[in-house]
Structures are given as C-alpha cells and as structure tokens.
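Students often ask why inverse folding is considered easier than folding. One informal answer: many sequences map to the same fold, so there is more than one right answer. In these notes we will look at a single instance of the problem. The structure comes first.
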C-alpha cells in the first residue's frame, strides 16, 4: 500500500500491514534490501561450507547435511565447516545489533562497542579468566567476558552521567576507558608466561576456526535470549530518537530504557568476544552500511542484523582464503572506514 495519498512523505513507496488495531509500515526499498541480504547470507553460507582445501559439490553437501555420504565428508561439514559458518552468521548479527543500539543511543556514527571500550572490557574479563585464573573453557570465558563488558559499561555510564547521558560525552568517556583497559590488557599479557601469552594473543585476534557445536549451543542460546529482549524494547528505544521530551510524553522511561539497552548491547558483544575473541569494527560499520542501503531515517535493527551477518560471513571467507584470522580482516577493512569516519566527523564539527 502506498501512503503518499495521505499527504505525508514517507521517503518512497511504503507497504502497510494492519491487524487488530495495530499497523506496521515498511518501505518497499527496505523489504527489497532485506530480501537481497538474506539471499546473499544464504549463498555465502553455502559457499563457506562447500569450499576450502577440499571442494564439495552441492550434492555432497546435501547428503552430508542428512548424514549420508562418506564419513569424512559428513565430519568435514558437521564438525569443521558448518559450525564456523553458523558462528560467523550469528556473531555478525549480534555485533551489528549491538552497534545499532549504541549508535542510536549516542546519535553518533562513532558510537560502537569496540570504539567506546566495551569490547576492551570484555577482553579484559576474558584475559583475567585465562591468564590469572588459568581457565580456558568456554563457560568461564563467557562469564568473564560478560562481566568485564558489563563493568566497563557501568563505569562509562556513571562517568558520563550529568543529569542524564549525552551521546558525545558517552563516546569520549568510552574512548578514554578503552585506552585504559588496553593498557591493562597489555600488562596482563606481559606479566604472564610466553606460552600462555601467545595463546591469549592468538585468541585476541578473533577466530571461529576452533569452535564446534559444543560451544555453539550455549552461544546461540544466549544470543537468542538477548535478541528477544532487544525486540521487546525496540519500539520504546526507537522513540528516543524523537528526543527525550517527546519520548517521555509518549510514556517512555528514557533513562531506564537507555540503561537496559546498554546492558543488552554489551551482552551481545560480550557473547561474541567470549566465543571468538574481539572482532573489531563490524559493529561500527554494519549499522551505517544498512542505513545507506535502505535509506532508513530511524532505528532499523533487522536490516543492520542482516548486514552484519553478510559482512562477517564475507570476512570469514576472505580470512580462510588468505589464511588469517577473521579479526584481522575486519581490522584492516574496518580500520580504513574508521579513519574516513573520523575525518568526516571532524570536518562536520
């Protein structure tokens, strides 16, 4: 349904669903972009499973999925390649949603968990578990990463509080905390043994290569719960983009919803960090790329999530081809984008 007849400009043709007194309006362009991203994610996932040192045909892949075919191919698909692809897809979605939350909260393209210190906090928590407590199991690492990210978020929130949280102050405080935590992380690495430090540094580059379905079940379960909670708060959170006064007039408890969404965003990035190590810049790039593709004017979490999944699947494929970790791929590609963004923001200000 086109709403242009109502005398309002919604930025192009829109489609409206109405049911039970409620309505949902989505632009036709957004639906097209999401459909393309979903198709691209499926294609990249199939490519990721079927290519490598040994290339699988689609027939061999299909047989392996149902448990038929040669044992080595079934093991290759189910134990090595499929977990890695699913981790990249779900991890990309989680990071992109987290980035979308913080960029909306700060109203600034620099608002990303890896820029404002939350990734560094999660890394600190995981390093304490690995190097101080001597435990490298997934569950303790997950707890340490979530705790470290949550503490970093709480510190930034409290230090940035001045009769409320302002986006630019939030970012500045977060960047300062990130530098401080980076120093702590380097100190932990220097003070430990060479072998342990080497393992921690390798993990810190970010990689899904050594993960299997044993780690995938708790990972996807935690991410699913966090995404469900984000969905329940998304409408109220999106109203914050109208301004605090307008949102409060609509019944939104502004500071409460901010704090809840900060915790959910930290939880999403910490879940990925616990599984694969820090993966930089994807949370920064994905929401902005999604907004440019859809030309959306407000919060668009679904499009950001699909963009993040596609980007991390692509980075994983590139990493496999040139035999480097996925974190290094995102650092190289995202770092260039970050420099451009800094220069562009400086010129605007």
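Output (designed amino acids):
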């Amino acid at each position: 349904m086109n709403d242009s007849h109502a005398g309002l400009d919604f930025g192009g043709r829109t489609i409206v669903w109405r049911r039970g007194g409620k309505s949902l309006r989505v632009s036709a362009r957004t639906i097209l972009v999401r459909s393309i991203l979903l198709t691209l994610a499926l294609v990249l996932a199939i490519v990721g499973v079927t290519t490598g040192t040994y290339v699988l045909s689609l027939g061999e892949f299909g047989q392996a999925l149902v448990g038929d075919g040669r044992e080595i191919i079934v093991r290759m698909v189910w134990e090595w390649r499929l977990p890695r692809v699913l981790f990249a897809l779900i991890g990309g979605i989680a990071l992109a949603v987290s980035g979308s939350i913080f960029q909306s909260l700060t109203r600034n393209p620099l608002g990303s968990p890896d820029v404002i210190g939350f990734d560094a906090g999660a890394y600190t928590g995981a390093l304490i578990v690995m190097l101080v407590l001597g435990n490298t199991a997934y569950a303790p690492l997950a707890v340490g990463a979530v705790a470290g990210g949550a503490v970093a978020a709480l510190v930034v929130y409290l230090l940035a509080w001045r009769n409320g949280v302002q986006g630019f102050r939030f970012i500045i405080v977060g960047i300062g905390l990130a530098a401080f935590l980076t120093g702590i992380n380097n100190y932990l690495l220097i003070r430990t043994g060479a072998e342990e430090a080497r393992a921690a540094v390798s993990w810190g580059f970010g990689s899904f290569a050594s993960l299997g379905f044993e780690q995938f079940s708790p990972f996807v379960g935690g991410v699913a719960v966090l995404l469900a909670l984000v969905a329940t708060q998304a409408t109220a959170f999106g109203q914050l983009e109208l301004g605090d006064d307008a949102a409060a007039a609509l019944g939104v408890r502004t500071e409460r919803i901010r704090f809840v969404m900060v915790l959910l965003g930290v939880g999403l990035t910490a879940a990925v960090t616990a599984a694969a190590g820090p993966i930089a810049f994807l949370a920064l790039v994905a929401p902005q790329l999604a907004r440019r593709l859809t030309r959306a004017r407000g919060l668009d979490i679904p499009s950001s999530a699909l963009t993040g999944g596609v980007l991390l699947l692509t980075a994983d494929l590139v990493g496999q081809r040139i035999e480097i970790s996925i974190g290094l791929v995102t650092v190289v590609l995202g770092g260039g984008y970050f420099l451009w963004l800094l220069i562009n923001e400086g010129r605007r200000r």
